[in-house]
Design goal:
- By secondary structure, the protein is of the alpha/beta class.
- It is built from 11 helices and 25 strands.
- It has a 5-stranded parallel beta sheet with strand order 3-2-1-7-18. It has a 5-stranded parallel beta sheet with strand order 9-16-10-11-12, with helices on one face. Strands 21-22-25-24-23 form a 5-stranded antiparallel beta sheet.
- A hairpin with a 4-residue loop joins strand 19 and strand 20.
- Helix 1 packs parallel to helix 7.
- The mean pLDDT is about 95.
Length: about 450
């Protein structure tokens, strides 16, 4: 059995390791057009801020590691064409430029994603950078030493983390966001406002509802002029963080994809072609709060899907459980975590949803020091099923987001969460954990609504 893996970051590495573990006799060939594998792009802000001293530490596997597992690893090889009908690939060696063909019995597409490059005039200016791979990370780090005023375009996950990193390193930072809030895919307005206020308190100049139209060089300063829908901004350096797209052109028209070009798979990571599997940023995931396919490019999804694609190559063994899109970040001294749907996205998806906001100390008031916790809990009204949660505090509460993720996965209700057994010890929490308390608040809200209807 010959297995070809195209692309090798998180999902590809996971697939190679799992095939070696479960099917050591399989013949595995990996094609990767870069000269490295397994780069953790989430480490770029950590490298920029100095938390991580060496960018090379963001690799957790090397081509040699995968070769030691028995795989034939061909880095600097670009797959030019895939013919699913004949199970063949056309490949170019990027060092010699020799072009050759290969074949497969099973194919795993782990080609990942690429940065969305807006079709803007001046996007190719030398001081306008993107943020995704190792080389872009190195450019971001090196240019930070030379330029004081940095503008981030895009207030999503990557943009906000970079904003935090630049602000921590004595840069003048401007953040331009096209929506009316930052992190609009992850959190609702109230917690977004808290995060925005925190960034502003650390000197970040934030501009919402601004659409960038073009970039042009500033002849006087050598920097960049950013033109938006209503005014211009000046910067020494611009980082564009406007999202990612699935890198799936090689299979377009050969397997089913969603309207954005992400590959659609079944529960076993199998595409509409039974001999082609897909994992990671190249494909959709089942978003459990809605039960629908969604595009959520996260490393956590990629490693799980890569492992499952490998497990299911020779027949269905284990299903992908779907995802809640759980994530977290550290903004200065605050933890921000989220899982599942926000109220806005739940309503946009047609769910009859509501939310409550809990605010209180994470442990008894007689314990010092203490810290306030803010939690938004989102739920479906008719079924009382939990749909999502968002957390904000100087207290480290990311594992609470994981707990709610399990509740969403298991289709638990606000009634379940309100009284589920959780430990109490004054060092750690209240007699009722704050997850119990926010769920009890949701129950009280529904009781009030029911009482009002009976009046």
């Amino acid at each position: 059995m010959k297995v070809v893996i195209v692309g090798c970051t998180h999902a590809g590495v996971a697939a190679v390791r799992q095939i070696h573990q479960e099917h050591p006799d399989a013949q595995v060939t990996v094609y990767e057009r870069d000269n490295n594998v397994s780069f953790l792009s989430c480490g770029i802000p950590l490298y920029l801020s100095g938390t991580v001293q060496r960018l090379e530490d963001m690799f957790y596997a090397t081509p040699a590691d995968l070769s030691d597992l028995g795989a034939t690893v061909r880095i600097k090889h670009d797959v030019l064409k895939i013919d699913a009908a004949t199970k063949t690939l056309t490949v170019e060696n990027l060092e010699t430029h020799a072009v050759f063909q290969d074949r497969y019995d099973k194919l795993i597409m782990t080609t990942g994603s690429y940065v969305i490059v807006p079709p803007l005039i001046g996007i190719d200016h030398e001081r306008v950078l993107l943020c995704k791979d190792y080389w872009q990370a190195q450019a971001i780090h090196d240019t930070a030493k030379k330029h004081k005023h940095v503008t981030i375009v895009g207030g999503g996950y990557v943009g906000v983390e970079l904003t935090d990193a630049y602000a921590r390193t004595d840069h003048d930072v401007t953040l331009i966001q096209g929506n009316n809030q930052i992190l609009n895919h992850y959190i609702d307005q109230n917690i977004s406002d808290m995060a925005t206020a925190l960034l502003a308190s650390h000197g970040v100049d934030i501009h919402l509802n601004k659409r960038v139209k073009s970039f042009r060089g500033n002849k006087e300063t050598g920097g960049v002029i950013i033109e938006t829908n209503d005014q211009d901004y000046q910067a020494d350096l611009v980082i564009v963080c406007t999202g990612f797209m699935a890198n799936t052109e090689l299979l377009r028209g050969q397997v089913d994809m969603d309207k954005h070009g992400a590959i659609i798979t079944n529960d076993y990571q199998q595409t509409s072609d039974p001999d082609i599997f897909a994992a990671g940023d190249a494909c959709t995931v089942r978003f459990n709060p809605t039960g629908r396919n969604a595009y959520i490019p996260l490393a956590t999804n990629a490693v799980r899907q890569g492992m499952l694609a490998a497990r299911n190559l020779f027949g269905p063994v284990q299903k992908f459980m779907g995802t809640q899109g759980s994530t977290a970040m550290l903004l200065f001294d605050h933890t921000l975590a989220s899982t599942g749907a926000t109220l806005r996205t739940a309503l946009e998806d047609g769910l009859d949803a509501a939310s409550v906001t809990y605010e209180g100390s994470y442990r008894p008031d007689f314990m010092h020091p203490n810290a306030p916790v803010t939690i938004d809990l989102v739920y479906e009204r008719p079924t009382r099923r939990i749909l999502g949660a968002q957390f904000w505090s100087t207290h480290e509460l990311t594992q609470s987001a994981n707990a709610v993720s399990i509740a969403i996965q298991n289709r638990n209700t606000i009634d379940d969460l309100a009284y589920v057994d959780m430990l109490f010890q004054p060092h750690f929490d209240q007699p009722f954990n704050y997850l119990n308390l926010v769920a009890q608040q949701a129950i009280a809200q529904e009781q009030a609504v029911a009482a009002k209807k009976q009046e």
